[in-house]
Specification:
Layout: E1 5-14, H1 20-34, H2 37-40, E2 49-54, E3 64-72, E4 83-87, E5 92-98, H3 103-114, H4 116-119, E6 125-130, E7 141-147
Antiparallel strand pairs: 1-3, 1-4, 2-3, 2-6, 5-7, 6-7
InterPro entries: AraC_E-bd, Cass2, Reg_factor_effector_dom_sf, YobU-like_regulator
Domain AraC effector-binding: 1-149
Organism: Chitinophaga silvisoli
Length: 149
């Protein structure tokens, strides 16, 4: 069981169909860094960046929302143009994407999708944690947490 958390960041509604998510998420990450979103978020808990996948229409083949943001202690101040959400505690299965980013994360998701039924996914929310280890070139690591029943 992983504790719940609050997050503030920027979001997009997307789908994995026809490579749409690759484009939308690339733009969202671009915006996150170009607009220095990290610095604008109040009440940060850590230096880690979270990418959260939620509001699934059904499963990974349909629409979902992605939020790129930072865990915070409070949702009292949400900067204009940003999203603030609270996520409840869930049961998660952890995967570690290892290698050059973002390819390693993409490859790990392919593995997760192939094992979709076996993993007994809950589709409440899943998330990635980009910490210090995520910026180590070809030896980077990103933790991916998949909600399970």
């Amino acid at each position: 069981m992983t504790n719940g958390f609050k997050v503030i960041g920027i979001s997009v509604r997307t789908t994995n169909k026809d490579g749409q998510a690759m484009q939308d998420l690339g733009k969202l990450w671009g915006q996150f860094f170009a607009e220095n979103i990290f610095e604008k978020i109040p009440h940060k808990v850590s230096e880690e960046i979270y990418a959260i996948y939620t509001d699934y229409k059904s499963d990974y083949t349909e629409e979902y929302t992605t939020i790129i943001g930072v865990p915070v202690t409070s949702l009292d101040e949400i900067p204009e143009g940003m999203t603030g959400r609270e996520f409840e505690a869930e049961q998660f299965r952890k995967f570690i994407a290892k290698g050059a980013m973002p390819a390693a994360v993409g490859n790990t998701w392919m593995e997760i999708w192939q094992r979709d039924k076996e993993l007994n996914r809950k589709y409440t929310y899943d998330y990635e944690v980009y910490g210090a280890k995520s910026r180590q070139g070809d030896h980077s690591e990103v933790d991916i947490f998949i909600a399970t029943k």
